[in-house]
Specification:
heterodimer; A: mainly beta; four-stranded antiparallel sheet; 55% strand; B: mainly beta; 11 strands
């Protein structure tokens, strides 16, 4: 069975600093990985995905993620955080026709 | 505007009173799915549908029913709701053509409270 772990419930970062939101996964076969963001009182929005190819994936709003097969990780990164990036972030792995999510990480960016 | 809509957005009900949460998408997506979101557990998949008249269980299907009679609609039915079904529910859809790993589009959510 597939699983996703987001080890940090919350990440705090100052505006302008780089940010990292961690994700590790477990899946048999090739992993198909996603990051989604949830703003308050909204549904989830797609940020980026890794299917195959380059290990560094670029997505929306300046976010990128690094796929590391040996460490089974797919960490979300941004070089310079904005206050407006504050939200709940979910990592997910696609397996067959189902999507399995991690527990989510709340990102707080302080001015 | 391309979107997934859900109704109602908020619902308070009592144990055992049947309810339906509707979901509709206007993007001609084949795949539709229901999730529930609980603190610390992320989103868990309840049911999904690959196309009209094709549905399958997700990770937490107990206590729920679905139907897919039209491509655009995928209602979630709780025939006898219980307090442990109090949660935030999301409907989502995506294309299946081109890539089996297309991103999903999510509705705004339905917050359900069962007393």
């Amino acid at each position: 069975a597939q699983s996703v772990a987001q080890p940090e419930d919350q990440v705090n970062v100052a505006e302008g600093n780089p940010l990292t939101v961690k994700c590790t996964y477990s899946v048999s076969g090739n992993p198909y990985l996603f990051w989604y963001v949830q703003y308050p009182n909204r549904g989830l929005q797609f940020l980026l995905k890794y299917i195959t190819g380059d290990n560094l994936v670029k997505g929306s709003y300046g976010f990128e993620a690094e796929f590391n097969k040996s460490q089974t990780s797919f960490h979300l990164k941004k070089p310079s955080a904005l206050v407006s990036d504050s939200a709940l972030y979910f990592c997910a792995v696609n397996y067959g026709n189902m999507l399995t999510f991690g527990g989510g990480t709340r990102l707080m960016v302080k001015p | 505007e391309a979107q997934v809509t859900q109704n109602p957005r908020y619902l308070i009900t009592v144990t055992g009173k049947k309810l339906t949460v509707t979901c509709s998408q206007n993007m001609n997506h084949e795949y539709m799915s229901w999730y529930r979101q609980d603190p610390g557990l992320g989103l868990r998949q309840i049911y999904y549908s690959m196309n009209v008249e094709v549905t399958d269980k997700g990770d937490v299907p107990e206590g729920y029913k679905v139907s897919r009679k039209e491509k655009r609609n995928f209602p979630l039915i709780l025939e006898s709701p219980s307090p442990n079904q109090t949660s935030l529910y999301f409907c989502a859809s995506r294309w299946t053509s081109g890539s089996p790993y297309n991103e999903q589009f999510f509705g705004p959510g339905t917050r359900l409270t069962v007393l």
